[in-house]
Amino acid sequence: MGRTVAIDIDACIGCEACVEECPDVFAMGPGDLAQVTNPDGADEECIESAMDMCPVNCIIWED
Length: 63
Description:
Shape: globular
Helix content: 10-25%
């Protein structure tokens, strides 16, 4: 089984950078915080780009 993308909600500040960069994977959820809505919605390059854009580095890979 491969890795999957996740968001550390405790660290998220709701900047929406991940949603703008990779909207097929991320969306804004409760409390105006980002959430993963479709972990298979885009390739790893798009997800990695969203990770790089995140100012608080709250997007992580989980095994």
